[in-house]
Amino acid sequence: MRVKISLSDGRTDVMEFSSDISVTTFLTLLSEKFNVSISNIHSIRSGHPPKILDQTRPQSVVQFENGDRVQVVLSTKMDIRESPERTSPKRDFIEAKIPSDVQGLWDYAQHQDRNIWNVLLDDIKHRKFTSLFNEGGGYSKLMRLQKGRLYRTLFVQDKAQK
Questions:
Q1: How many structural domains comprise the chain?
Q2: Residue 86 pLDDT more than 50?
């Protein structure tokens, strides 16, 4: 399969891969080709009408078709941990909301200079990070927080504007 990739920073190129490629493999190839961190990829759209690639399902097969134009939107936010200024109350609030076990995984992956998905895949045997995904684990808490924020953004603010 051959698709044209367009990044939001203006770079474009063509990628070739098999039609049964997983989301994880695609993200890894994309990261290597364009020298971008997977964590800096905000969204990926393809086709008409545009379909959004679900990055939360790493083992699913990408739904691209040969000749598709794939648009990759890169995140413009700074990594909180790399910020030289720690004076922003908003940054401190966001960082305080990240559960410590999730932050531990992120720090471990950064220390190993690897992406989180590869760390988790290698961890399947050792099960060191399994508790993050159990009820009450860090990712469970983080997802509830994000869903609440999304709900407030979409519904509460929308109703207030009407």
A1: 2
A2: no
